[in-house]
Amino acid sequence: MKTVTERICCSDRPLFSVEFFPPRDADDEQVLWRSIRDLEGFDPAFVSVTYGAGGSSRDRTIRTTGRVATETSLVPMAHLTAVEHSVAELRHVIGAYAAAGVRNVLVVRGDPPGDPNGEWIPHPDGLTYAEELVTLVRSLGDFCVGVAAFPYGHPRSSDVDTDTDYLVRKFRAGAEFAIAQLFFEAEDFLRLRDRVEARGCDATLLPGLMPFTTPKSVAKAIELSGAPFPPALAARLEPFAGDPAAFRAAGIDLVTELGARLLAEGVPGLHFYTLNRAKATKEVVVRLGLAPEQARAA
Ligand code: FAD
């Protein structure tokens, strides 16, 4: 099983990767597995599965990531958070990932359950920052660890420079790469990359993109990014508010343009937040020339 770093650094061309969330029920599971199978031929660098707050959702993450490891040709990456976990429980989950053959872990702190903006209260026997979780995961095995990065700064941070200092600490603790939260313009990501480089750090940074297929997906992107939608982009989508097909086409154009600009700036890959659907991501990936020849023809 390859690591994310091996996939990205051994490639002579930029790659793409995809993120899913664990299925909530049997219908969700069908949609997810159709998407996974659909994307398999497109050779993503890795496939990640988010880690939720509840026990059953967490079990589904472990199960789904394990199935990707054993039943597909894809490279899985499991997410892990420190939310409501003691260190002993975290060790147990990391052990379960290792037993399922998962070598890549995206380590994030997670948000307080219920209200993501509520007070962060660490588990009495747990961890406070993702940096500590990076150290723990690295101490427990030969894992390739990734972390989260925030182009506009994490919402709890006082300013982007302090936030970047903490990101660099996560790299120094053993993270090999970071995936950026959603952003809207290439410059937002490139400034983050400059800040990291200015600190003497050459870790891999992957931009995170989401195809804007509906007004709801734009609202979700605004919520996750923590930034307002740029008026120039809104002006390109607004004329199609009443026409779902035209809105989708304009939204896919926007994300394709953003991806093309980032690739021209030398990013090693693009990470797609898929919301468990493959079609829009496939369209963008094909248009950007990131899919293998045979998948493009199919
Ligand atoms: P941290 O790096 O711990 O940072 C949290 C805050 O503390 C920031 O303000 C930071 O600047 C500050 N800080 C960091 N280190 C220190 C320190 N040593 N001392 C003082 N302050 C510090 N959430 C989930 O629940 N499940 C998921 O699967 C998930 N996947 C994600 C994937 C990606 C790519 C991204 C971008 C986010 C994901 N999230 C997920 C959301 C994430 O958990 C939240 O955004 C969370 O609030 C921040 O996590 P973090 O790992 O950046 O935290």
How many structural domains? 1
Rg, Cα atoms, Å: 18 Å
CA(first)-CA(last) distance? 27 Å
CATH topology, which one? TIM Barrel
The number of E-state strands comes to 9
DSSP helix fraction? 40-55%
Which helices and strands, and how do they pair?
Blueprint: H1 4-9, E1 15-20, H2 26-40, E2 47-49, H3 55-71, E3 76-81, H4 87-99, E4 104-108, H5 130-139, E5 144-149, H6 160-172, E6 177-180, H7 186-198, E7 204-206, E8 208-209, H8 215-225, H9 231-237, H10 244-264, E9 269-273, H11 279-287, H12 293-297
Parallel strand pairs: 1-2, 1-9, 2-3, 3-4, 4-5, 5-6, 6-7, 8-9
Helix pairs in contact: 5-6, 10-11
Describe, in plain words, how this protein is organized in 3D.
The protein is α/β, with parallel strands linked by helices and 298 residues long. The chain has one domain: TIM Barrel (Alpha-Beta Barrel), CATH 3.20.20. It is 47% helix and 13% strand. The chain has 12 helices and 9 strands. The chain has helices at residues 4-9, 26-40, 55-71, 87-99, 130-139, 160-172, 186-198, 215-225, 231-237, 244-264, 279-287, 293-297, and strands at 15-20, 47-49, 76-81, 104-108, 144-149, 177-180, 204-206, 208-209, 269-273. Strands 7-6-5-4-3-2-1-9-8 form a 9-stranded parallel beta sheet. The mean pLDDT is 96. The structure holds flavin-adenine dinucleotide (FAD).
